[in-house]
Amino acid sequence: MKKTVLRKYAKLIATKGVNLKKGDTAVIRADLDQPEFIKMLVEECYRAGAAKVEVEWGYAPLTKIHVRNRSVKTLSTVEDWEVAKLNHRAKTLPAMIYILSEDPDGQKGMNQEKNAKAISARMKVIKPIRDGMENKYKWCIAAVPGKAWAKKMFPGEPAGRAMEKLWEAILYTSRVDDDPVAAWDAHNADLKNRCDTLNSMNLVSLEYKSANGTDLKVGLIENALFLGGGEYTLGGEYFNPNIPTEEVFVSPKAGDAEGIVYSSKPLSYQGEVIDNFYIRFEGGKAVEWGAEKGAALLEKLITMDEGAAKLGECALVPQKSPICQSGLTFYNTLFDENAACHLALGMGFSNCIKDYDKYTLEECREMGINNSFVHEDFMIGTDDLSVVGVTKDGKRVQIFKDGNWAF
Amino acid sequence: MKKTVLRKYAKLIATKGVNLKKGDTAVIRADLDQPEFIKMLVEECYRAGAAKVEVEWGYAPLTKIHVRNRSVKTLSTVEDWEVAKLNHRAKTLPAMIYILSEDPDGQKGMNQEKNAKAISARMKVIKPIRDGMENKYKWCIAAVPGKAWAKKMFPGEPAGRAMEKLWEAILYTSRVDDDPVAAWDAHNADLKNRCDTLNSMNLVSLEYKSANGTDLKVGLIENALFLGGGEYTLGGEYFNPNIPTEEVFVSPKAGDAEGIVYSSKPLSYQGEVIDNFYIRFEGGKAVEWGAEKGAALLEKLITMDEGAAKLGECALVPQKSPICQSGLTFYNTLFDENAACHLALGMGFSNCIKDYDKYTLEECREMGINNSFVHEDFMIGTDDLSVVGVTKDGKRVQIFKDGNWAF
ipTM of the predicted structure? Predict the structure, then answer.
């Protein structure tokens, strides 16, 4: 890929992504796949005004080796200095940039149960600190090609060409054209219009119907806020958490969902695939489920903690979205969640409440924002999906028709 | 390079290098050049019994970018959590493995003055903690090829072949043959014999002479201890700090050196070269110096702090050493210091005193072990170098003749 194009992408992440200002600190988390691009990104972060840029490298293939060789106790330990680091982050609130490139099959063969135990234990220490940071800092997730990922997406191509094609796919869906910054401004304006329309309707529930059997009614929190594209921190700083993004989403009322929903795409979870599955909800909670493939893993996901059985997100994505139209499966949620309407099991977003900054996180959760260690999207969008919104005064409004926006 | 050979090398580092035992923690610091090898090394650490292996990745090309874009203040800051991490290391004493692969010219064009200021400031916080760890933990420095390094060493070769040749050079000089563990046992036995002989002589000074003008007398600490090959921690654990190593060395008496010494090989320092230089010592301190190339940088090195003008190490390496015989210049001290006799400016080694574990670090320094932020080797070995040892009772013993061991 041409360096000039990559530099535009790096600049897009540093400016539109985390919207760096003079004096900011930025932390970049990346795997080892594209050091040259990360170097460019570091430069663009400084150019945007950052006073300090830190890079935390990871190497995903080591995770499996650690899980195999360490005891659950050693895997679970969060050292004092790690807590000190998290607290430092919670205090100084650096902009966080997550650059994904992982092998979709990288965790295959890992002892997921052992890993889940360790994650649960670590999360008990980490999550309260993270909760304290919620909505306070700018963050952005974007992607770069990794060899194994490219090979998975383009199995017929030689390695170099597969990497090139993945760069093309990432840059195309991320709107890295002649002027990516202008493209993102236009895209954000469109998503904002749709959110404004939905937020003016005073919706109390969404009703999903599809010929595949989906028939689900999801209750919304009073004063629920539909979001899409850019977001604001509590301090009023604008940022784009996902590059790319096509969705308009809301966090539903955790205890209020009735009916059944069928998956429309495979769910890649912990390196394995759950496919052709359904979940039936009663009183907001998953009470029955099944899958043609990966049923045990689905059960593990749903029973991970109490909140994992409840919904944390309802996202609307038209079948006309570029990612859907590309016909590509990315085996990566950042992209694939933007290919179709989806729901998420697990943690909800407290900023999906009007004037959310007036409430504590605890109050948001009391209103119905779901709490969990996990947040896992699964796709339910189909070419015939209908979504009807029911307003506070009982009116029914067609929101999605035949898989696309009805307005 | 064949995976079976690389695995032998990884095992050599995990077992002979840091001598991992059941329950140990190992920390590996590596650049991004050879993730596959690092993965093997992690596996071999676990196989040797490690309960936890951490990898800290670095990417040297970022250093220059950070130095250019951050303020001295931001570069100098050691965050509280970093102090907590260092203290955790000082308390738990993990085995440290440093895998080098850096571009010898990587720091070219960096603002060295700015960087040195920041390092000095950081060292004020870091060094007291590091001092507290001295001689208490197992550590090992070894190397793997990096692209820029390979290109520098084998400029005429295509990239892939240069990398292969560098692997060959590293593995050959590191004695990774059919049975590297046995080879290291034999090598260590030879170095130990030479140390035992030197340590039985009760030497009070070393006199260096060469036709190039070198005429230097260096005083030794009473009860000075010559070391070579493997070392012991204060807790009695054996380890090999350098792979490869050919030297037998001692820390001289910091305040006792008279005469002049001429360099025999270029010194690569902070990414730049100091060549054909001399240093004249009076009362143990460099008082006059000059260089055909890099004179300003030599001055910066010598005046870095008070201890940088004094000697911290005298190392004896025969011209017959495999690294010298290979004729290769590695542009990396780990190898090049094993190609010739050398001295070091800066920090001395407190374990170069007999029964050093009976003394505090402060007492060792009072006896003459030099203290400084820097430790920089420079080569003085020539084909005609003579080293004469003077014993406590005034006898003169030929130690090196014509650049090789005289006994």
Answer: 0.85
| Pick from B250, B267, B261, B240: nearest CA to B337 | B267
- Residue A264: name the closest of A403, A153, A376 by CA: A403
DSSP assignments along B26-91, one per residue: EEEEEETT-HHHHHHHHHHHHHTT-SEEEEEEE-THHHHHHHHHS-HHHHH---HHHHHHHHHHHH
* B43, B57, B65 ranked by CB distance to A42: nearest: B65
User: Terminal CA-to-CA distance of chain B, rounded, Å?
Assistant: 38
Residue pairs spanning A and B at CB distance below 8 A: 81
And the tokens for A156? Answer: 């017929």
pLDDT of residue B356: 87
Tell me the per-residue pLDDT of A98-124, one tens digit each, with 9 for 90 and over. 999 999 889 888 998 899 999 999 999
Q: Which of residues 62-81 of A touch B (CB under 8 A)?
A: 62, 65-66, 68-71, 74, 79-81
The Cα of B47 is separated from the nearest Cα of chain A by a number of Å equal to 8
Q: Is the pLDDT of residue A155 over 80?
A: yes
Alpha carbon of B81: minimum distance to chain A alpha carbons (Å): 5
Per-residue pLDDT at B322:
85
pLDDT at A271 over 80: no
Count CB-CB contacts under 10 A for residue A86: 19
Mean pLDDT, rounded, for A127-133: 93
Please tell me the distance from the alpha carbon of residue A29 to that of residue A26, in angstroms, as a whole number: 10
User: What DSSP designation does A358 have?
Assistant: G
Mean pLDDT estimate for chain A: 95
**Using an 8 Å Cβ cutoff, are A117 and A161 in contact?**
no
Q: Which residues pair with B97 in a beta bridge?
A: B28, B140
pLDDT at residue number B331? 87
Burial profile B176-198: b = 16 or more Cβ within 10 angstroms, e = fewer: beeebeebbeebbeebeebbeeb
B74 to chain A: which residues are within 8 Å by CB? 51-52
Q: Tell me the pLDDT tens digit for each residue of B206-252.
A: 999 999 999 999 999 999 999 999 999 999 999 999 999 999 999 99
Distance CA A324, CA A340 (A): 7
Average pLDDT on A232-261 reads 96
The rounded distance, in Å, linking the Cα atoms of A23 and A20 is 8
3-state secondary structure of B129: helix
**What are the chain B neighbours of A61 within 8 Å (beta carbons)?**
35, 39
Query: Which whole number is the average pLDDT over B112-139?
Result: 94
Instruction: List the single best residue of B45, B81, B92 to mutate versus A (max A Cβ within 10 A).
Output: B81
Q: State the distance between the two ends of chain A, measured CA to CA, in whole angstroms.
A: 38
Torsion-angle region of residue B213: left (phi > 0), alpha (psi -120 to 50) or beta?
Answer: left
Q: What is the pTM for the complete model shown?
A: 0.86
Mean pLDDT of all residues in A364-388: 95
CB nearest to A57's CB, from B59, B71, B85:
B59
| Interface test mutation site (partner B, options A71, A73, A85, max chain B beta carbons within 10 A) | A85
Reply yes or no on whether the pLDDT at B153 is more than 90.
yes
Phi-psi category of residue A276: left, alpha or beta, with phi > 0 → left and psi -120 to 50 → alpha: left
